[in-house]
Amino acid sequence: MQSAASVPSAPPIADINTTPLIDVMLVLLIMFVITIPAATASIDIDLPGKSETGPLVFDPVKNKIVLTPDGTIEWNGTPISAGQLSALLYKTTRMPVEPELQFEPDAQASYDLAARVLDTIKASGVTRFGFIGNERHRDFGK
After folding, report:
1. Which of 5, 109, 113, 127 supports an S-S bond with 105, CB 3.0-4.6 Å?
2. Which helix (H) or strand (E) holds 86?
3. Rounded distance between C-alpha atoms, residue 100 and residue 8, angstroms
């Protein structure tokens, strides 16, 4: 019988044990995924809603947009939203003969609203457009 000192021993393993490292990395990955906040960014879109006044009237010759001091957009006297304005302008530009679009902002109407409405009109591709009611402001500053 041989003594324990004379039994040949296996060479030591020189490879590093990566299992604990992988376990730690997976735990950290799960922690980071859990702590990432959910996406909270949103985009406001004006969707056309139900019209309380009935269907909007299209005049085949001319349609009028009025901006009021309280921030309302009116189409031929009927209050509409910005989304409805885009839809109406789209419909008028697709008519066989495009009607004239008249723009009449009130003197006390918001400049920002007027700029946004004009941007919407320009983006819609309206070709027959005019400002009306400017004669009321002929004596500006007097």
Report:
1. 109
2. helix 82-93
3. 103
Q: Rounded to whole angstroms, how far apart are CA atoms 35 and 14? A: 38
Residue position matching structure tokens 């060479």: 11
Instruction: Compute φ and ψ for 124, nearest 5 degrees.
Output: -75, -20
End-to-end CA distance of the chain: 125
What pairs with residue 66 in β-bridges?
74, 104
pLDDT one-digit tens code per residue, 65-105: 999 899 889 998 889 988 888 888 888 888 888 888 888 88
Residues 6+ away with beta carbon under 8 Å from 101: 62, 63, 64, 65, 89, 92, 121, 126, 128, 129, 130
117: tokens are: 């409405």
Q: Structure pTM?
A: 0.56
